[in-house]
Amino acid sequence: MPLPAWRTHRFDLSQGLDVTDVAILAVANNPDLKVMRDQLGIARAQSFAAGLLPDPQIAIGRDFLTHKQVGFTSAYNYGISEDVSSLLTRSMRKAAARSQADQVNLDLLWAEWQTIAQARLLFNQVVSLRAQQKQLTAEQTALASVDGYVRKALQQGNLTDDSASAGLNAYADASKRLSDCMVQLHQAEHDLRLLLGLAPDVPLQLVGEPFHVSPTPEQVQAALASLSQRRPDLLALQAGYKAQEASLRAAIRAQFPALNVGVDRQRDTSDIVTNGFTLGVTLPLFDRNRGNIAIETATRQQLKDDYDNRVLTTRSDIQQLLADLDTLAAQRDRLESQAMRLDQARHAAEAAWQQGLLDWPTYLSIRGNALGADMDVIAARDQQSQQAIALETLLGDTDLQPSSVATTQP
Which residues 6+ apart lie within 8 Å of 17 measured at CB? Predict the structure, then answer.
């Protein structure tokens, strides 16, 4: 688990899934994360391959006489050689490959963070839609009696079509909103099952409240100060920059003449045996690896600019989220107070309607206002939770700092 606190969390499906259980299951069972873990295995294998020494080359040759002649014999030659120039860049290749493996590992950790955020968002969406479904179902049931009353009055000629339209539309509108809510709920449950790697028919017994955080300004500043040492995506960019530095050093060293050294033994047709050596050198007259050096230099600059832009964007996004959370918290308090007052009015209106003390248009108006307030509260709670999830993802957690990973900033 990417969060150390989760390693001691009691995971019990019989008690239902809270927001932490959903995030844990997503990290452990998400199909896309499984593929990324396979890619990490490939990167580690490539890191191992980069440190292997080049194999020496053996050359063997033999020349046979076309006709036997006195004093002459068949000739042969054999030797062994090694590409020395590849040894000069071996340490840089190993360093680049190790940093690239670190980058893949950190990209995986960042993908886990993103999966956690997505699991929390989908948990929140399902819980909110189920709350809306409950409200709309209750509203549809309550309006069924009004709908029946209006239809009966219309059939008896006590109401005209114009005056009855408001009562008929109220029930139809509640039914449509309930159907739309059910469609959205089915989609959200489908997305959550897919994220968790569950079969389509697995029931989702979600319990508890949606995810929410309210960091203090001091906590935010402390998190921002150590952001570049904790955020996996920033650490991944640092590892990528470090790998590019090693690749650039390798390209610079590769501009020197390529050297191939070997020893050999030969015998000519006159039976004279000689021992010697071979030395192959590439003359750096035209190429001198200048093209690769330019490419590696430009790539390093691109990585640095990408890192700087990511840090700047993150800090701006965090400030915006903090401002939004303050606004949403105040808005939610107002909406909850308004919804509570309208809920009381709805209960009083329902009792008066059943006793025949209130006309149905007024009753429908009060119910509509109360339902709208309830929907607004659910939407505000959902939006506040979404912003909190985004803030937590951007700020990260101090317990999430990876171990044994270089944190050299570009």
Answer: 25, 123, 204, 205, 206, 207
Q: What span, in angstroms and rounded, lies between the C-alpha atoms of 185 and 190?
A: 8
Residue 333's CB: how many other CB atoms inside 10 A? 11
Local mean pLDDT, 10-residue blocks, the chain (410 residues):
68 83 89 87 82 83 79 84 78 85 88 90 93 91 78 66 67 88 94 92 88 79 84 90 88 78 82 82 77 88 91 89 88 92 91 83 86 91 88 68 40
Q: Report DSSP letters for 96-111, one per residue.
A: HHHHHHHHHHHHHHHH
Fill in the DSSP letter of residue 62.
Answer: E
Q: Residue 212 has what pLDDT? A: 78
Give the up-direction half-sphere exposure of residue 285: CA atoms within 13 A in the CB hemisphere: 3
Side by side, which strands form the sheet with 273-281? 57-63, 75-83, 259-267, 273-281
Q: Does the CA dihedral 311-315-320-325 come out positive or negative? A: positive
Q: How far apart are CA 154 and CA 146, in angstroms?
A: 12
Give the three-class secondary structure for 231: coil
pLDDT at 404: 35
Pairing of strands 259-267, 273-281: antiparallel
User: Cα dist. 139→178, 342, 347, 350, 362 in Å?
Assistant: 9, 14, 12, 12, 16
The Cα–Cα gap between 132 and 125 comes to 10
Q: Which residues pair with 17 in a beta bridge?
A: 206
Distances (CA, A) of 164 to 146, 155, 173, 242, 367: 11, 11, 14, 74, 17
d(Cα 89, Cα 182) in Å, to the nearest integer? Answer: 62
Per the CB < 8 A criterion, the answer to whether 167 and 150 are in contact is yes
**Residue 269 CB contacts under 8 Å (≥ 6 apart), including other chains:** 63, 65, 72, 73, 74, 75
* 3-state class (DSSP) for residue 61: strand
